[in-house]
Write a structure and sequence with these properties.
With 463 residues, the protein is mainly beta. It has three domains: 135 residues, no CATH class; 194 residues, no CATH class; 70 residues, Carboxypeptidase-like, regulatory domain (Immunoglobulin-like, Sandwich). Helices cover 13% and strands 38% of the residues. The protein is globular.
Amino acid sequence: MRSELFVMGERRLIFKKRFVFHYLCLFLAIFSCTEGGIGGSGVVIAKADTVSGVAAAGAPLAGTVILKDASSITKQLSTPPAVDGSFSFNVSGLTQPFLLQASGMAGGNNYTFYSLAATGGNCNINPLTHFAVTMANGGQDLAVIFAAPTPAKMVAIANALPAAVTSIKAELSPLFNQVGVLPVNVMTDQMAANGQGIDMLFDLVSITVSNGSVSIVNKADAATILAPSSIAGGTMTASTTVVSVMPSIFTITGHAAGGNVSAQSEAPPYPSSPLMTVPTDAQGNYKFFVPNGAYEVCSYGSSSLNCLNVKVSGADVTAPDFPKVFVIPPQEQVPFQTVEKAAAPSSQVTGGIHVLRLTTEWSNFWSILKESSIPRPPLPSINFNENTAIAVVDSLRPTGGYAITITDIQKSATGVVVHAVHQSPGPDCVSAQSFTKPYNIVMTPKFSGEATLNLTETVYACH
């Protein structure tokens, strides 16, 4: 289960007024699907005989997705979404349209959302799809329909859904414009869990659908964005809908060497505020949509992490270019998704690198890692027919302030090389006085051979 540990790194001191390491996700959680499995771009793809996508409420949803078809005797499929919220159903032989329900935890809260796929292919399950399908059902509770669906009712909802989607696009356009996602089809447009676009909207506002009406409030101050408005007629109308814009959203633009760029607010509860990530275009340009505030914007290029402090105050900002870095000849990259990055209060898991290829290995590892957690978190779902889990675990530390971050995985002649950064607090830092064991777990496409660890040490100052 555990491969041999090789440490081939350099010790590096990073002193910043307020440093937090940003890791960049090479695979972004995607809130929709286009055509045939998970591709190298991180986009979930759906064929005509599949209904695939991602269930999310800003954060990916961990729970269960259920699909019901429109047969006279309803056929039902269910699956737990993967760690990024993605799911897929083979609907060959089933009768369209398909009604979907996603229930579970996202961002520490319980949710139940509904969606509808008129045919196989693209889909989303999130607060806006729940809003759209409820409106297409005349504002009536979808739980009743889902419990006992009939072909006639499902077809009626499918026929009414385009008008509901069009009205949402028109009447909520002030909000969509603010986060840079117009035009938008809330059912089928691609949405990434990267703190931007529709995902940013879910982080900023609460959408409540209840008793035949919808309302939207600003999460930050509970200010009304949309007062309770009737959706019993199947659409939103300009005569009854008054949508107030959120506090102003601005842009941070800039240029990096390539790859992804991350940004994180430095306001409390920093550093636990959402990490935003965006890709650069062919010229290295990037763009973030953000409210007023101070941000740490980071680009990981080659073997160096470069960060900039950017302040947004009532206007769009062009950030300085990131410092140029020495470019190491490129190796073939292995895409990966973060399963969990945290610190256990105590654990008997051995420090080092662990390669997990079987469900039994994964379950045993998780049980030992979470032995002191009450209640024990559910085991994240990983399809080991297609994937391998890699965990890098620190030794037991006497205080907080330590972290492990996997930054890059490359193919090698004997398997893969996992590049990671170990972060330690400087002597002037005030850290929690409790034992911790930091770790980072990721999921990669299945590979053979060993995993070699290339670990870089960093120390930060808190003055």
